[in-house]
Amino acid sequence: MKAIRRFTVRPVLPEPLRPLSDLARNLRWSWHAETRDLFRSVDPERWAASGGDPVRLLGSVPPARLAELAGDRPFLRRLTAVAGDLHDYTTGDRWYQTQPEELPAAIAYFSPEFGITAALPQYSGGLGILAGDHLKAASDLGVPLIGVGLLYRHGYFRQTLSRDGWQQEHYPVLDPNELPVVQLEEPDGTPAQVALALPGGKQLHARIWLAQVGRVPLLMLDSDVEENDLGERGVTDRLYGGGSEHRLLQEMLLGIGGVRAVRTYCRLTGHPAPEVFHTNEGHAGFLGLERIAELCADGLDFDSALESVRAGTVFTTHTPVPAGIDRFDRELVARHFGPDAELPRIDVDRILRLGMESYPGGEPNLFNMAVMGLRLAQRANGVSLLHGNVSREMFSGLWPGFDADEVPITSVTNGVHAPTWVAPEVFRLGAKQIGAQRAEDALTVGGSDRWDAVADIPDQDIFDLRRVLREQLVEEVRERLRASWRQRGAHTAELGWIDDVLDPDVLTIGFARRVPSYKRLTLMLRDRDRLMDLLLHPERPVQIVVAGKAHPADDGGKRLVQELVRFADDPRVRHRIVFLPDYGMAMAQKLYPGCDIWLNNPLRPLEACGTSGMKAALNGCLNLSVLDGWWDEWFQPDFGWAIPTADGVGTDQDHRDDIEAAALYDLLEQRVTPRFYERGRSGLPDRWIEMVRHTLSLLGPKVLAGRMVREYVERLYAPAALSHRAVGPDAARDLAEWKTRVRAAWPGVTVDHVETSASEVLAELGTTLGLRVRVGLGELGPDDVEVQVVSGRVDEEDRIGDATVVPLKPVGSFDQDGRWVYEGPLSLDRTGPFGYTVRILPAHRLMASSAELGLVAGPSEELVAAAGLLMR
After folding, report:
1. Smallest Cα–Cα separation from 124: which of 603, 523, 132?
2. Distance from C-alpha of 17 to C-alpha of 287, rounded to nearest angstrom
């Protein structure tokens, strides 16, 4: 029989145990070992059965056990110490509080998904895990972040396999009352809510749940409330589910509703209002529209409000391909805004213009969320050095007339939250060398270029650590594999072979991630005979653990999963290669430490960053990867191996996969497995151990989320806060009027004449030439522009590369023809073909980049031809 109604019955904790409730509701336990150990000691069996979730644990402990613990003095002393530690952590000064005073009072961080812990399954993959690590690192550093997301009643999905290896999706219902969240309430005890206007006079209501992530509040909006009709209740049903309108409503709720939730939270708690808003990928881009509407309600016009909002907004793009961006039909967007829907006082055409692909190569009828995100943010970044380059190319149409390397998108390479991902055994080994507090600081605050203490760890200790971690992974794999086969319909009597799956002394390779086609899950299967030879080699065998989820609508990805599963089911190799379904945080925390090699073979350059290899590296696992994402930036032979790629023009996909798979097999056969199995005089694989040591000491400090968040603070949040303060209402009006004036006058801006003191096209290195330029500024003056000389080495088509930009100075007033004269030096600082040009850009003290307006004026083709601007 099915129940007609469901309740969540919470335990009544004895008074001495009340701090357990606070500890369970603050998600710091997910990365704080002492807190987890305390909960484990409440009831070890129930702790294991709860999946390591303190809220579920406390809901299952019998009253008799609670009464026993309430009189257990050693337990109460531990409880007092852990609770006191949490209080000190959440109230004391940390890194941020020691920085200069101009840092922002608060930052709002919006993301469609957050991977904090397996006990709060609100993530699908890398974007969510990155967002979770961002919040945790911000908490450790004391950064006053407010996280904003949605609470999905079905999360992403749980994955199982059919008997023939086909992915099957399951959507268990999540009851917020059974999650580590609390409902935000008004002073009278009623649930705090936000509402959005929908077409036809309807409304979308959502209540606000609060997850406390250390010091950082995470606000999560939930539309499954009684005030909504059935359709609106389902808006937050699934992460990345539904059709276009469903996704649009989710993103309106996240962006517009999210800003309203932040305002409600600050009103109810006294938290400082955010000075900076960080849009983590385009899904949350509508937050800028809500902030414009707020300012318009206070009396600003749209253009001025736009300038004010842009000044304090940071946008991070995570995708290297246009297909990864949410795009909506303009008519769908138009229907949801305006007088009969949301933001009624803003002209719908102004909203549409922010997101339309109104540039060469764009789709003029599509509303692009990333394009809107870039237009609404004064500062933008990709998530690795290579991804920054790719993003500048991909979005260069928004800045016509500028070379891609001048497009104002920088990069902050992702990092990972070490306390979450480093195995306890690895931490203990570090703490043994330098003490627990110094080890914790090294993993959270970071700041050093190298961890020198790793050099003092004996080889035997590193070898023993790696074997212990491998052995734990073998046990975990067997347990999960047995559960998976039972779900696939196998009887226990058929599964005796699982006792011999994997070997704790065999080189172990891990591969786990989402399964879009570009990540190439099945590249390892390209030559099955070679792979079998590697798996079954008599002296140097390899074993592989694979996990990954395909999107529910991606049948191509599901076929890749099935292909891999069927290979792993082969009785000849099933003890050497396994596929584990339902990849998530709990599995990952065992998988990364237990592998010796982390494999990554995407199509370059389609991996924006890819952080799984970072988590593996922090546990002493070596990377074997295509030079993409972060690995392209930080690869050294000491840290692992680079898989050669065939990403040149003209290589078809099949042929490219063949080439790169062959390179992968060659590396494994000739370099990786010999290095792992060869023994030095001590009987240990000393050359392998040395690579592990270098990975920990030199790569470890780079891949920390603490380093990443400090970069965001110093390079993006602090400048954005200064801009926000500088662009008050009056300054915003002035800036908007100036931009309008400059755009109108720009057709009259010209470079009319260029002359140099050089009489020949041959010159010596180190020569400085005088440059004199006449320009027409039309209705503008020298204060509105900057005239620059751009110089550098040129290619066979006279394109300037690795350019040097020097501003020229106006000389006197304009002449009788209304032309201004600018002069300055031109340094010939490079040998070989050398060229220069002159250009004019808008200039204003409140712009973050001279490319911001996308306006540039240069010499006409006739002037270039007459000037002979090339020197050899």
Report:
1. 132
2. 41
